[in-house]
């Protein structure tokens, strides 16, 4: 299975509509891949809090429509990163009550362009500010069965919570996909945590971040694909826009888990 991570540049001077078209074009260029992943909140910027309410959209909004078409044209499974979702029935005036109906929601499409899953981010970043104050939290871990593997979905700050990834593993995930807008200041944490989640769950980790700077926050980039033994298969060396691609062997997860069966020795659950 070939996986490609698109480390997309989120340039605040680029109109959102233009970035949607450009991102869709990049997805179509990966037609030789089986799975393509985009980063978190690439339409608005993960730290552009003041724009969340204005850029919020429903699950069948403009980003979903153009990503559906791109997945269908490229014939790929597409993790389209995440959008600011406005829940059905919510208003649009940006008031505090209205903002409780916003979610950081990852969109996942089949090669037929069908939206097969929407994962609402469980762990919101910002403590008492930012995303944590402006958005509601998702409640359910998300797994998506593919013909060759089962994906577990996570978003950015989720990466710091190993219990979520263990829940995904318990639910059958063998490939863990993380979309992110991770800041450069904590780039070392990003790389370390991606490898840790792979090693402790004996699973592939595909971690895709944004490039560039948005809302004054330089991004880490360094999108990475890690195998179940913790070896890095491919990694972006910097925070520039680029595509990171690697070949995955889904059977290797079972091999690692059988040869070194640490998961069966768990005591606390």
Automatic annotation (TrEMBL):
PROSITE patterns found in the cross-reference section: CN_HYDROLASE (PS50263), UPF0012 (PS01227)
Record-linked Gene3D superfamilies: Carbon-nitrogen hydrolase
GO molecular function: hydrolase activity
PANTHER family, per database record: DEAMINATED GLUTATHIONE AMIDASE, NITRILASE-RELATED
UniProt entry tagged with the keyword Hydrolase: yes
Name by which UniProt lists this protein: Carbon-nitrogen family hydrolase
Family of this protein: Belongs to the carbon-nitrogen hydrolase superfamily. NIT1/NIT2 family.
InterPro entries linked: C-N_Hydrolase (IPR003010), C-N_Hydrolase_sf (IPR036526), UPF0012_CS (IPR001110)
Pfam families (alphabetical): CN_hydrolase
Keywords from the UniProt entry: Hydrolase
Organism in which the protein naturally occurs: Streptomyces taklimakanensis
Domain CN hydrolase: 1-250
């Amino acid at each position: 299975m070939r996986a490609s991570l698109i480390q997309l540049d989120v340039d605040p001077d680029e109109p959102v509509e233009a970035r949607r078209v450009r991102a869709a074009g990049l997805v179509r260029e990966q037609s030789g891949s089986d799975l393509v992943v985009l980063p978190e909140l690439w339409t608005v910027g993960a730290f552009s809090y003041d724009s969340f309410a204005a850029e919020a959209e429903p699950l069948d909004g403009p980003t979903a429509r153009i990503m559906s078409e791109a997945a269908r044209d490229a014939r790929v499974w597409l993790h389209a990163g995440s959008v600011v979702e406005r829940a059905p029935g919510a208003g649009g005036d940006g008031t505090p009550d209205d903002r409780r109906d916003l979610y950081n929601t990852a969109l996942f499409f089949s090669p037929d362009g069908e939206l097969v899953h929407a994962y609402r981010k469980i762990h919101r970043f910002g403590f008492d500010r930012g995303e944590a104050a402006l958005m509601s939290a998702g409640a359910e871990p998300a797994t998506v069965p593919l013909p060759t593997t089962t994906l577990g979905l996570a978003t950015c700050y989720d990466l710091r919570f190993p219990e979520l990834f263990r829940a995904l593993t318990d639910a059958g995930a063998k490939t863990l996909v993380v979309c992110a807008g991770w800041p450069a200041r904590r780039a070392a944490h990003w790389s370390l945590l991606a490898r840790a989640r792979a090693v402790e769950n004996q699973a592939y980790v595909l971690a895709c971040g944004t490039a560039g700077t948005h809302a004054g926050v330089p991004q880490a980039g360094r999108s990475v694909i890690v195998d179940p033994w913790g070896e890095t298969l491919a990694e972006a060396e910097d925070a520039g826009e680029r595509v990171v691609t690697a070949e995955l062997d889904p059977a290797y997860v079972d091999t690692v888990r059988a040869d070194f069966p640490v998961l069966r020795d768990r005591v606390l659950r």
